[in-house]
Amino acid sequence: ISIISFHIPPSTHTQQTALLAHMRKVVIIVKPTRSRKLLSVHDYHVYFRVLALLFAVEEINKDPNLLPNITLGFHIYNTQPNEFSTLETQSVAVIGGETSELSIQINTLLNLYKFPQISYGPFDPFLSNKVNFPSVYQLASKDSGLALGMVRLMVHFYWTWVGLVIVDNTRGETFLWDIREKMTRKGVCEAFVEKIPTSDKYINSLGDTMRRINQSSANVIIIYGDTNLLMTLKYVKGHYVICNKVWITTFHWDFVIRPHGMDVKSFDRALVFSDKKKDIPGFKHFLRTLKPSKYPEDTFLKRFWNSVFRCSLDYKISGPKHCLQNTSLEMVSIRYFEMSMSSQSYTIYNAVYAVAWALHKILLTRSEMEYLRDEDSLVLRPWQLHSVLRNIQFNNTVGDQVFMDEKRIAARNYDITNFAIFDNGTEVLVKVGEFIPHAPFGEDLSIHENMIMWNQLYLKIPHSACTEKCGLGFQKSAREGMAICCFDCIPCPEGDISNKTDMNQCIMCPENEYSNKEKNLCLPKMVTFLVYEEPLGITLTFTALAFCVLTVLIIGVFVKTLSYTLLLSLSQCFLSSLLFIGKPNSITCLLQQTIFGITFTIAISTILAKTITVVLVFKAIRPGSRSRKWIGSKTPISIMLICSLIQVILCGIWLLVSPPFPDADPHSEPEYITLQCNIGSLIAFYFVLGYMGFLALVSFSVAFLARNLPDTFNETKFITFSMLVFCSVWISFLPTYQSTKGKTMVAVEVFSILSSSVGLLGCIFFPKCYVILLRPQWNTHEWVNHKSYDSRRHHSKAFPYVS
Fold first, then answer.
1. Where are the transmembrane segments (predicted)?
2. What is the separation of C-alpha 28 from the centre of its chain, rounded to a whole number of angstroms?
3. Cα dihedral value 178, 104, 79, 43, nearest 10
4. Residue 233 to residues 22, 205, 402: CA-CA distances in angstroms?
5. Cβ of 607: how many Cβ atoms within 10 Å?
6. 295 Cβ partners below 8 Å, 6+ apart?
7. Do 172 and 178 contact (CB within 8 A), yes or no?
8. Enclosing domain of residue 356
9. Which of 359, 401, 582, 679 has its Cβ near the most Cβ atoms within 10 Å?
10. Considering its fold, how many domains does the chain have in total?
11. What is the tens place of the pLDDT at every residue in 98-112?
């Protein structure tokens, strides 16, 4: 263990001499080093912390208000890794270690003797347990905002498919739990999780781990670990240069100052969440003026100088080139040395001041005591430093408040830096943003995208997603059994739009708007209804009027007969279809269905009366028939009136309970708002329609049974055909009416009215008009008697045994 200690030489003051003779050393414990001629790159990193200690000691010695009349000195020991050597130096405090594991190992022994241990490694909540670690103090800022900052960076660049490489220890597990929770909350998915053990016995499996990382579909990788993880990856077998990934690392893993021989090409253009640099006044000047000649007794500095500049300070030795007098640490690449103070060096700087202020406070307290001749009573034991250390707080030279109370330590603020390796081997770290955890949302993360140097494989910001984004007009559809970031893109349904990318669900347009073809914009609907001016309205109107006129003309042929009533009702049926054309209003809506139902009921009732009359006539001509009393004009008129009255009652109930009313239908047609009549009660509508169907079925049945009566006096065949046409029209009307939308639904009903009316008119009256107008000779007694005689002869031959 490299032990760097500083001591306080005895003062000329008698009282202080007795006191400070036992306050000789404070120890800083860092990573082990080996005795060799040249230092490794990692040793440079260690020695940089020694320089922070040296700077703090010199700064304290120059401060007249801190430990006045006391000059601090220091010794650097390169000893064997033995914790007992630390205790033999009569230290009162220990500053160490670099990792939590090292601090725990040191604590095992130091806690037995109550030695205060100030850890300069990353803040670990595990070490805050004062039951297990009562002598450990932490000064580093908390990393509670690191996971949030990384997730905010993912969201900023729309990275939703991210791999995680985590060191396999308690800190790694804590970070993994934290970042998983925040990724889930922001809709970011983990492509994989690789846990890297730091034990040597697992090193052989690291090659497979790197291969899996390289083959992953995730282009962004989060790596979290400390220096031990960096040392572990150095021994990966094989040459694994992963150039197609964007790495996001932390300051805990400093691959800038890295182990000797480690290849970091895989991490070119990585984004690093580093601690905000603290510009300690005078520190850069201290480094600029640092030379081996200034500290001739520091053998480590000489070796450091020889290794960095590849030169020799001994001018008597031939071989390596001699070091120039004007060499300065400013000339060293960041791979070997940084002029700014690192986060761990800053913690060491504060730790030295914390111990100094504790000693200063004890010195003031003891100076106020009465002089005691027994010098042993003034001996300061390590455990006595705890009461002072745990309450120490002060402002350092930067102006930051330093607390030894871990509950008051604030969360760390981060600089986001971009690590780049140029073709000539030059390595740079460029600040491209920052993250402040406690700042308001939107102000916590700032990124200068134009300053980021991405990998040469990417011409623009890298893309990392399980599936491509869903464009405008599409919505996400989750893939069963996969992460939420893996989905399919399906088009929005009719009437819905998505005006943003990656929408989980399309949004519905308002009722007065419809979605365009691309399903990314809602457009206002146009008001429409079946009008007279359009071709469909003109055709239906012309048809209705033409057949109405034709019906009126036929009425003149059948004046004063039962057919007169039938023709008159049929003419009204044709005219009732006009109520369905034009802009609906309250009156037309009330009249549409009622006029249609009543006029058609009168027509069908009349046909039923005609059919029954024909049957009664043929039955009445038989001898002894009782049907003669029903023959006359009252019977068919009564049938017609009774059947029609029932329909009038049904329509009256409909109008009283739930009458039709004007309505607007924004759903039937996507681009239009259809003005139409709402029928009100659907049950009443089907009752009216069903009653007409019932009368038509009865008429059809009676006419069908009477079809074999003599043709001369029988028109039941024509009635049968007419009812067959009527029933066919309205049976096909129901499914067609239900399947159509908008004004087409109205046109279907108008067409059904016209076609059924034409069917009745054509099947019943066209044959009669043909005889009356074109074959008048067939309408004479001679022709009727002749046809009747032929019919009886045919009937007798066909049925010889029937009289």
1. 536-559, 566-582, 594-618, 639-657, 683-706, 718-738, 750-773
2. 49
3. 0
4. 44, 11, 35
5. 29
6. 54, 301
7. no
8. 2-142+279-298+334-408
9. 359
10. 3
11. 777 778 877 877 788
